[in-house]
Amino acid sequence: FPDLAKARRFAGPLPFTFSYEPQTHSMILVEGRRDDWVPVPVSVEVSECTFLDGFPFAGVERKLANAFMVRNIPYHWQSGVREKLPSLPTDEPE
């Protein structure tokens, strides 16, 4: 990246969170809205992260991508949106 401002567009906190809904074979998208926040990277030391101990992350080199201080930020979640995923192909011949 030519400068930190351009890099921050890709390395900063993203506005969406996602979840899979197996009952409907859909993705649920929720957008977090925030105003007046200029992300400032901070240094952190992670001594333990058990979430990454299991599949599919076990045995993979771990590297923290980014960390930001979050304090006194006007923030709220939008209502979730359900997006139906395409049907999965079957293994049965036609």
What would your notes on this structure say?
The protein contains 1 helix and 4 strands, in the order αββββ. It has one helix at residues 4-11, and strands spanning 16-21, 26-34, 75-77, 81-84. Strands 1, 2, 3 and 4 form a 4-stranded antiparallel beta sheet that branches. A hairpin with a 4-residue loop joins strand 1 and strand 2. It starts with a helix and ends in a 10-residue tail after the last strand. The mean pLDDT is 81.
List the helices and strands and how they pair.
Blueprint: H1 4-11, E1 16-21, E2 26-34, E3 75-77, E4 81-84
State the secondary-structure class. mainly beta
Task: Compute the number of helices.
Answer: 1
N to C succession of SSEs: HEEEE
Q: Percentage of helical residues? A: under 10%
Q: What are its keywords?
A:
94 residues; mainly beta; 9% helix
